[in-house]
Structures are given as structure tokens and as C-alpha cells.
Amino acid sequence: MPSVLDSIKVKGMFFKNRLVMPPMQGDHATVEGGVTSKLIEFYEKRAEGLGLIIVEHSYVNLHGQLSKRQLGLYDDHLVPGLKELVKRIQPFNTRIVLQLNHAGGKAPSRLGIESVSASPMESARELSVDEVRMLSYTFGRAAERAMEAGFDGVEIHGAHGFLLNQFYSPLTNHRTDEYGGSLENRVRLPLEVVREVKKKVGTRLLLYRMGSVDLDFMGTQIEDSQYFGKALENAGVDILDVSGGVCGGAPSTLDVQEGFFVPQAEAIRAHVDIPVIGVGGVKTPQFADDVIRDGRVDFIAVGRAQRQDADWAIKAAKYLRAQ
Ligand SMILES: Cc1cc2nc3c(=O)[nH]c(=O)nc-3n(C[C@H](O)[C@H](O)[C@H](O)COP(=O)(O)O)c2cc1C
Questions:
Q1: What is the rounded CA–CA span in Å between residue 179 and residue 134?
Q2: If we measure between CA atoms, which residue out of 99, 65, 47, 96 comes closest to residue 241?
Q3: Quick count: other Cβ atoms within 10 Å of Cβ 189?
Q4: Is 1 within the bounds of a domain?
Q5: Does residue 274 lie in a domain region?
Q6: How much is the pLDDT for 228?
Q7: Distance 305 CA to ligand 1 centre (A)
Q8: Is residue 2 situated within a structural domain?
């Protein structure tokens, strides 16, 4: 079995190792969502030791913005800044993809911009069927901008209780039309978005971050996500990134144990024929290597540990090579 330090090819694209930086919103963008030098430096300082960087979630339209200094992808004027970010990472031979998100009902209502969701939640109103149908176009336009900026691909954010997850989860989707009710209906919008984005990324990479479980007996279960994972593969997803659903990315009930969403990634991996990224509380190089060597996942993401220590990946490689 390969080590975490071994290279891998996906769709003909070369990854120098299997270590991933998962998307982590740093709130270092301008108030318009533009790239800043502080944002670039965060990624530049961590790029050398990584096979893949997934750049933090960027909002695909103004209804989907979560926070004031979040990265944006809703307009063409944002492309030059993103181009500069990609250019600065290229010397490291590290693949770089950008995460696309719509925060849905989690977006705060702001002056003149209301928040929207699958069904009414908090201050959000329910989207009409026509508006739902427009969303794949919106994600597609954002993906086009990411391609223009030179990213190796995009990741669609379908986890942590944001809009696409709000459609997937029965906890937040109470619709009675073709976008709600059965599991097939609840995955309809995410699959429409995937098909449209796929057209835009072409030969580059399409990742999907899944909200694999809600940790609620009324919410999504792993069996739903095994079905959904296969459907995402059939719709054109190249890599599945498996995280939490409405429960969020680091639920307090799980956060104590290293690799807390790896069991879900492993269970989904058994049902698909595309590479899978595992994540959750990974702190030690040994654990990151073991999950790859044991064939549990194809890539392993290390978030907060790398946020705290920019040299985490370099140190991990040194430690593992010395073993
Ligand atoms: C500050 C911070 C920002 C995050 N932003 C995002 C994000 O933009 N998109 C996303 O999918 N997950 C986001 N996450 C979740 C992480 O990608 C990751 O899944 C989670 O932190 C668990 O991994 P870790 O224990 O290795 O940090 C964020 C996490 C943190 C701590």
C-alpha cells in the first residue's frame, strides 16, 4: 500500500503526495470578496509540503455570502486576484482547487439581500422552483471564473449545513415538489449543480464535499451518502471529500478522536470507484500515513493543525522519512 508521501494521479493530474489542506475560511479577503496579500501568504507558506490545497469557500452569489471578509466568486472582477493566488502557488507543484459555496439559510440577511434556503429556516425564505433551477447556472458561472483564474479544478461545498446540504438533509428540506421528500429528490439539486459545473471544468478536477452524516437519527445516514456518493460519481465528480452534514465540520461529540470523519469516508469509498479524501482532527503524521497505508482513504486532509503550524506538512514528511 502507498504511503501518504507517495504521488498519485487522478484524471491524468499529478499530485506529489496525498496530503491535503482542507478549505478553511480565514476572513482575509476584502469586503468585496477580493484576494489580499494576507490571504495569498497563508496558502503560500503552507504549499510546499502539500499535494493539494483546497482554497476556502467562496460565495457564488450575494445571497450566499456567509461573512464580511469571505472570499468571493460572484463576479468577473474577482478573477485577477484569484489568478495571482494561483500563480504564487504554481512554483510548488501543488494542485490548487477553489471551493464554491452558497451559505443558503446560514447566510445572514443583510440590507436588501435576503437569505434563502430549501425550506424556511431562521430568517431565510424558501426558494421557488424557478430559483432552484437557476442555481446550477450560478454555480456554473462561478466555476467558469475559477477556470479563468487558472485553478486545477473546483470543489462544490455540499457539507456543513450550507445550501446544497440544506437540500440533501431531511432536517432542513421539507419541500413537497421534485426537490424535496425522497432521497432521489433531495439530491436532485446537488446533482444538477455537479452536471453544470462539470461542463465548465472539462478536463480539470471536480471535487464534491459531502455532508456524509448529520449525527441525528432524523437526518442523513451513511447509507444515504453511499447512494449519493455513487450518484455524484456518475454525474462526473472526480474526487469525493467526506465531511459532516448539518452537524458541521467538527462536531463536539466527535472532535476528541483523531480522524473523526474517516470511518464515513471509508464506508463511502467502498461504494464508489473514485478517490476519497478523509478528514477530521488529524494531528499526527503517523495517523495521516496509517490511514493511507491501510487503504482506508486515498487522500488525508489536515486542517487546524496546519492552520496553527505552517510547517506541519514539511515536518510530517521529515518525520515519516526518518522512520
Ligand atoms: C477556521 C476554519 C474555517 C473553515 N472553513 C471551511 C470552509 O471554508 N469550507 C469547508 O468545507 N470547511 C471549512 N472548515 C472545516 C475544515 O475544512 C475541516 O473539515 C475541519 O476543520 C476538520 O478538520 P481538522 O480537524 O483537520 O481541522 C473550516 C474549519 C476551520 C477550523
A1: 13
A2: 99
A3: 27
A4: no
A5: yes
A6: 98
A7: 11
A8: no
* C-alpha cell recorded at residue 311: 510547517
Strand partners, 209: 157, 241
The answer to whether the CB of 158 is under 6 A from ligand 1 is no
Residue span of the structural domain in which 270 resides: 8-322
Q: CA-to-CA distance for 319 and 317, rounded, in angstroms?
A: 5
Q: How far is the CA of 71 from the centre of ligand 1 (A)?
A: 15
Q: Would you report the helix, strand and coil content of the chain in percent, each value rounded to 5?
A: 40, 20, 45
Helix (H, G, I), strand (E, B), or coil: what is residue 10?
A: strand
- 17 in any annotated domain: yes
Q: Is-above-0.90 flag for pTM? A: yes
Q: Which residues, given as ranges, of the chain have pLDDT below 50?
A: none
What is the tally of structural domains in the chain? 1
In CATH, what number is assigned to the domain containing residue 274?
Answer: 3.20.20.70
d(CA 222, CA 216): 11
Assess contact for 17 and 318: CB atoms under 8 A. Answer: no
pLDDT at 106: 96
Q: Are 197 and 143 in contact (CB under 8 A)?
A: yes
